[in-house]
Fold this sequence. Notes:
The structure is a single chain. The chain is mainly α. It has 2 domains: 61-165, no CATH class; 167-206, no CATH class. It has 7 helices and 2 strands, in the order αααααααββ. The protein has helices spanning 5-32, 71-78, 94-99, 112-117, 123-131, 153-159, 175-180; strands at 183-187, 190-194. It has a two-stranded antiparallel sheet. A hairpin with a 2-residue loop joins strand 1 (183-187) and strand 2. The chain is elongated, with a radius of gyration of 36 Å. The termini are far apart. The model is unreliable at 34-45, 47-60, 119-123 and 126-131 (pLDDT under 50).
Amino acid sequence: MSLNHNQMAYAAIISTLIFGSLFVGISGFYQTSSGVGDFDSAAEEEINPNVAIQSEIPEDNDEGVGDGLPDILEESQYGTDPNDIDTDDDGMSDGWEVKHGLNPLDNGEADNEEEETGATNTADDAEVSNESDSWPDPNQGKYGDPDNDGLTNEQEAELGTDPQRADSDNDGLNDRWESLYTMEVSSPDGTITLFNPLSGNWGCTL
């Protein structure tokens, strides 16, 4: 029986699909079979439970004096002393300064030796001095006021306000003004503290 053109094309397509499927099946058998070829399946590889996977991220471990900074970051990133809660001796802990954008190594005051001499003695010292013209920065020390709200950094640390924001609670009132006029009043909901620089008292009932 002779086949017409369409029948021959159909038969060719079917034959191609059959032979292709057989080829893929046989190739897969030779690649994955444990008895044929040199390929070892990943499922057959032995996993050693004694090999520990070490994390690249160090533990957030503050083993020193408890200044809020991990010891490994004090040594590698900030240059602070892990055994000293206040490396620059400005009355504010290293962790608090870092958290609020202050330099824990700058107390805002010049060294006594620099104040007495008024100048460096060698070319090397002069080069170092030129590279650190902004050091010390008075705004970094306890008497600094980088947000110009009238509170020193030391006072902001005592109050818990942000030394970089003049209005820590975003209520439209200056932190220093609120700290001067903080008061407690009675309300149907109990005693409420007004003009608290840390709370805007949104939604309170008077």
